[in-house]
Protein backbone atom coordinates (compact mmCIF):
# COMPACT_ATOMS: atom_id res chain seq x y z
CA UNK A 1 0.00 0.00 0.00
CA UNK A 2 1.38 3.43 -0.88
CA UNK A 3 2.03 6.08 1.78
CA UNK A 4 -0.98 8.21 0.82
CA UNK A 5 -3.43 5.29 0.88
CA UNK A 6 -1.88 4.03 4.14
CA UNK A 7 -2.19 7.43 5.86
CA UNK A 8 -5.76 7.91 4.61
CA UNK A 9 -6.71 4.48 5.98
CA UNK A 10 -5.24 5.31 9.40
CA UNK A 11 -6.91 8.74 9.45
CA UNK A 12 -10.29 7.18 8.65
CA UNK A 13 -9.83 4.67 11.49
CA UNK A 14 -8.93 7.44 13.97
CA UNK A 15 -12.00 9.46 12.92
CA UNK A 16 -14.19 6.38 13.48
CA UNK A 17 -12.73 6.00 16.98
CA UNK A 18 -13.47 9.65 17.73
CA UNK A 19 -17.06 9.20 16.58
CA UNK A 20 -17.55 6.09 18.73
CA UNK A 21 -16.26 7.86 21.83
CA UNK A 22 -18.29 11.01 21.17
CA UNK A 23 -21.57 9.28 20.28
CA UNK A 24 -21.55 6.03 22.26
CA UNK A 25 -19.29 6.50 25.27
CA UNK A 26 -19.44 10.19 26.29
CA UNK A 27 -23.23 10.12 26.86
CA UNK A 28 -22.93 7.26 29.39
CA UNK A 29 -23.45 7.85 33.08
CA UNK A 30 -20.47 7.87 35.44
CA UNK A 31 -21.67 4.53 36.80
CA UNK A 32 -21.70 2.96 33.33
CA UNK A 33 -18.28 4.43 32.51
CA UNK A 34 -16.82 2.84 35.65
CA UNK A 35 -18.77 -0.45 35.51
CA UNK A 36 -16.71 -3.65 35.59
CA UNK A 37 -18.33 -6.97 34.73
CA UNK A 38 -15.64 -8.80 36.74
CA UNK A 39 -12.98 -7.59 39.15
CA UNK A 40 -10.25 -8.44 36.63
CA UNK A 41 -11.94 -6.74 33.64
CA UNK A 42 -11.53 -3.10 32.65
CA UNK A 43 -14.21 -0.44 32.68
CA UNK A 44 -14.82 1.92 29.76
CA UNK A 45 -12.66 4.56 31.45
CA UNK A 46 -9.87 2.08 32.21
CA UNK A 47 -9.76 1.05 28.54
CA UNK A 48 -9.45 4.69 27.45
CA UNK A 49 -6.96 5.57 30.20
CA UNK A 50 -4.77 2.70 28.99
CA UNK A 51 -4.80 4.29 25.53
CA UNK A 52 -4.12 7.73 26.99
CA UNK A 53 -1.00 6.36 28.68
CA UNK A 54 0.22 5.02 25.34
CA UNK A 55 -0.58 8.32 23.61
CA UNK A 56 1.44 10.21 26.22
CA UNK A 57 4.45 8.25 24.99
CA UNK A 58 3.79 7.68 21.29
CA UNK A 59 2.45 11.08 20.20
CA UNK A 60 5.65 12.89 21.32
CA UNK A 61 7.75 10.04 19.88
CA UNK A 62 5.99 10.46 16.51
CA UNK A 63 6.50 14.22 16.66
CA UNK A 64 10.20 13.72 17.34
CA UNK A 65 10.57 11.26 14.45
CA UNK A 66 8.75 13.63 12.12
CA UNK A 67 10.85 16.58 13.26
CA UNK A 68 14.09 15.14 11.97
CA UNK A 69 14.94 15.92 8.39
CA UNK A 70 14.47 12.93 6.18
CA UNK A 71 13.54 11.91 2.72
CA UNK A 72 10.20 13.01 1.39
CA UNK A 73 7.44 10.44 1.10
CA UNK A 74 8.14 7.84 -1.50
CA UNK A 75 5.67 6.05 -3.69
CA UNK A 76 7.06 2.79 -2.34
CA UNK A 77 4.76 0.51 -0.42
CA UNK A 78 4.87 0.50 3.36
CA UNK A 79 7.42 -2.07 4.49
CA UNK A 80 7.25 -4.29 7.55
CA UNK A 81 9.99 -5.74 9.71
CA UNK A 82 9.65 -9.00 11.61
CA UNK A 83 9.11 -7.05 14.85
CA UNK A 84 6.54 -4.83 13.15
CA UNK A 85 4.50 -7.73 11.80
CA UNK A 86 4.61 -9.51 15.17
CA UNK A 87 3.58 -6.36 17.06
CA UNK A 88 0.70 -5.70 14.68
CA UNK A 89 -0.53 -9.28 14.94
CA UNK A 90 -0.66 -8.99 18.74
CA UNK A 91 -2.80 -5.82 18.80
CA UNK A 92 -4.96 -6.55 15.78
CA UNK A 93 -8.63 -6.26 16.88
CA UNK A 94 -9.49 -9.65 15.36
CA UNK A 95 -6.88 -11.36 17.54
CA UNK A 96 -8.98 -12.75 20.37
CA UNK A 97 -5.99 -13.68 22.51
CA UNK A 98 -5.79 -11.61 25.66
CA UNK A 99 -2.39 -10.07 26.21
CA UNK A 100 -0.75 -8.80 29.37
CA UNK A 101 0.03 -5.13 29.61
CA UNK A 102 3.09 -3.74 31.32
CA UNK A 103 2.39 -2.59 34.87
CA UNK A 104 2.73 1.17 34.33
CA UNK A 105 0.27 1.01 31.41
CA UNK A 106 -2.34 -0.93 33.40
CA UNK A 107 -5.01 1.47 34.74
CA UNK A 108 -6.86 -1.18 36.77
CA UNK A 109 -7.91 0.20 40.13
CA UNK A 110 -7.35 3.83 39.13
CA UNK A 111 -9.78 6.53 40.22
CA UNK A 112 -10.97 7.85 36.87
CA UNK A 113 -13.43 10.50 35.76
CA UNK A 114 -14.74 12.06 32.58
CA UNK A 115 -11.46 13.86 31.95
CA UNK A 116 -10.23 10.53 30.54
CA UNK A 117 -12.71 10.90 27.64
CA UNK A 118 -11.58 14.47 26.94
CA UNK A 119 -7.91 13.51 27.01
CA UNK A 120 -8.58 10.61 24.64
CA UNK A 121 -10.26 12.93 22.13
CA UNK A 122 -7.42 15.46 22.40
CA UNK A 123 -4.91 12.68 21.79
CA UNK A 124 -6.84 11.62 18.68
CA UNK A 125 -6.80 15.16 17.31
CA UNK A 126 -3.04 15.27 17.87
CA UNK A 127 -2.64 11.88 16.18
CA UNK A 128 -4.57 13.14 13.14
CA UNK A 129 -2.25 16.16 12.98
CA UNK A 130 0.79 13.86 13.16
CA UNK A 131 -0.66 11.63 10.43
CA UNK A 132 -1.02 14.72 8.21
CA UNK A 133 2.68 15.42 8.77
CA UNK A 134 3.61 11.78 8.21
CA UNK A 135 2.09 11.86 4.73
CA UNK A 136 5.07 13.93 3.61
CA UNK A 137 7.82 11.62 4.87
CA UNK A 138 9.28 8.21 4.11
CA UNK A 139 7.59 5.99 6.70
CA UNK A 140 10.04 3.15 6.03
CA UNK A 141 13.16 5.17 6.90
CA UNK A 142 12.27 6.82 10.21
CA UNK A 143 11.99 4.82 13.42
CA UNK A 144 10.23 5.10 16.78
CA UNK A 145 11.46 3.35 19.95
CA UNK A 146 9.03 0.79 21.39
CA UNK A 147 7.54 2.08 24.66
CA UNK A 148 8.27 -0.87 26.93
CA UNK A 149 11.82 -1.55 25.60
CA UNK A 150 13.29 1.49 23.90
CA UNK A 151 16.24 -0.34 22.39
CA UNK A 152 13.74 -1.96 20.01
CA UNK A 153 12.50 0.27 17.23
CA UNK A 154 9.59 0.12 14.82
CA UNK A 155 9.55 1.86 11.48
CA UNK A 156 7.41 4.99 11.68
CA UNK A 157 4.70 3.43 9.47
CA UNK A 158 4.60 0.28 11.61
CA UNK A 159 4.42 2.33 14.82
CA UNK A 160 1.58 4.49 13.50
CA UNK A 161 -0.37 1.41 12.44
CA UNK A 162 0.38 -0.27 15.78
CA UNK A 163 -1.09 2.66 17.71
CA UNK A 164 -4.23 2.84 15.57
CA UNK A 165 -4.86 -0.93 15.76
CA UNK A 166 -4.18 -0.91 19.51
CA UNK A 167 -6.66 1.93 19.96
CA UNK A 168 -9.25 0.16 17.82
CA UNK A 169 -8.89 -3.01 19.89
CA UNK A 170 -9.38 -1.20 23.20
CA UNK A 171 -12.19 1.07 22.02
CA UNK A 172 -14.01 -2.12 20.99
CA UNK A 173 -13.29 -3.48 24.48
CA UNK A 174 -14.72 -0.26 25.94
CA UNK A 175 -17.85 -0.66 23.79
CA UNK A 176 -18.32 -4.20 25.14
CA UNK A 177 -17.90 -2.91 28.71
CA UNK A 178 -20.50 -0.21 28.00
CA UNK A 179 -22.94 -2.77 26.60
CA UNK A 180 -22.53 -4.94 29.70
CA UNK A 181 -23.03 -1.91 31.94
CA UNK A 182 -26.26 -1.02 30.16
CA UNK A 183 -27.49 -4.64 30.16
CA UNK A 184 -27.01 -4.97 33.91
CA UNK A 185 -28.33 -1.53 34.87
CA UNK A 186 -31.24 -1.77 37.28
CA UNK A 187 -34.62 -1.01 35.78
CA UNK A 188 -36.78 1.47 37.66
CA UNK A 189 -40.36 0.22 37.84
CA UNK A 190 -42.98 2.83 38.63
Automatic annotation (TrEMBL):
Pfam family name, one: DinB_2
Gene3D superfamilies: dinb family like domain
Domain of life from the UniProt record: Bacteria
Ranges for domain DinB-like: 16-174
Protein's recorded name: DinB family protein
Species lineage: Bacteria, Pseudomonadati, Bacteroidota, Cytophagia, Cytophagales
Amino acid sequence: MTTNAFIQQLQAAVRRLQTVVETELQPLSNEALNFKARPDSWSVLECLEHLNRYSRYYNPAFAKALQSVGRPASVADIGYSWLGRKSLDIVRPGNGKPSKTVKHMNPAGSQLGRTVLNEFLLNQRELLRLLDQAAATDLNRKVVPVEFFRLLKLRLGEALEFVVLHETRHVQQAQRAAQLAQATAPVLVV
